[in-house]
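Hey, weird one. I pasted the HTH hxlR-type domain-containing protein sequence into the form twice and got a warning about non-standard characters only the second time. First submission, copied straight from the form history:
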Amino acid sequence: MTAPAPHPSPTEPPPTCAVTTTVGVIGGKWKAVAVYHLLGGPRRFSELQRRMPGVTQRILTLQLRELEADGLVHREVYPQVPPKVEYSLTPLGRTLEPIVRAMLAWGETYRQREQDT
C-alpha cells in the first residue's frame, strides 16, 4: 500500500483523479457506445446512428466531434459525390477496447441480475 499523497498547497489546483479524466473523455450517454460500435471497424455516420437507437443526429455529431478532438476517433472524408464520411478509432481510441468490453460484460451481468429479481 502506498502512502497518501501530500495535500497540495492552497495556491496549487487539486490533482485530478484519473477516473475523472477518463469519464471526462468518454463520459456522456453515447460516447462509449459509439466507441463500442467502432471497435468493429470504420462506420459511416448513418450506420452508427442505426446501431444507436435513441441518439439524435445532433447529439451523435457532437459526441463524435468531441471524440475526434480528444484524438480517439478519426473522421475520413472521401472526395466523391455524394460525400462519403467514415469514422474509425485511432490507435489511442483502440486502447479503450478493454474498458468498453468490461463495460459490456458488466452491463450484461447487471441486466441479468435485474431480470432474475
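That's the output from the first submission. The warning seems to come from a hidden character in my clipboard, not from the data itself. Residues 97-116 form the longest helix (20 residues).
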